[in-house]
# Entry
Amino acid sequence: MSAVKRKIKLRKLKEYDTIWHPESTVVFKSKKERLVIGRYDGNSLLELDQQTLDLCSEWKFKVDESLLSSGHEEEEEEQSGEEPPQEQSGEEPPQEQSGEEPPQEQSGEEPPQEQSGEEPPQEQSGEEDISKSVLYKSVLDKLEEMVNANNSECNKLLKKIDLLESELVQEKEQRAKLEEKLNGIKNLFK
# Structure
């Protein structure tokens, strides 16, 4: 088995305060917890889907199992003959399969911590809550902005409808007056 070893270069994804793998487009939970939480399409963060799971399998990345729906993706994985990802209970973040640490693109961020024999203490639930909170807040802010823009547009259209309705009423009144005058003139000629 001569498998070609690919170097994994991770980059910082500033919009979501995390890192991602541009080649596969997968996004990780954080620098410390390298669990895949979705894909980045260049504009937004996409939720875990079958394509993301396939990319994780191909690149040997671990998935954040807490984001998997209750059995849907797991059933698809079982049907495809793949093993489900391992539980993340205090394990080291996934590393490159060759035993080397993946090179980080340097863009002003801190280099990853050196891996010694001891694991750094991980506050998974705290970091997870913060990461999800930031992500949810970002999504909610964008949704709120879109809703406000739509409400503003709807209000403008409603005002325009009211204006047009009042103009229609005036036109009908004017037409009725003109018809009365026309009938009066017709009666004079008879």
